[in-house]
Amino acid sequence: MINVTVRSIKEIATCIRSFELVPTTDESLPPFEAGAHIDVHLSGGLIRQYSLCGPPQLNNAYVIAVLETLDSKGGSRTMHELREGESITISEPKNHFPLTANARHSILLAGGIGITPLLCMAERLALQGASFELHYAAREQARAAFADRLMHPSLKTASHLYFDNEPSIGTLDLARTCANPCSGKHLYVCGPAGFIEATLGAARQAGWAEENLHREYFAGMLKADDESATFRLKLAKSGLVVDVQSGQTAIQALALQGIDVPTSCEQGVCGTCLTRVLDGVPDHRDMYLTNEERARNDYFLPCCSRAKSEELIVDL
Question: What is the pTM of this model?
Answer without folding.
Answer: 0.77
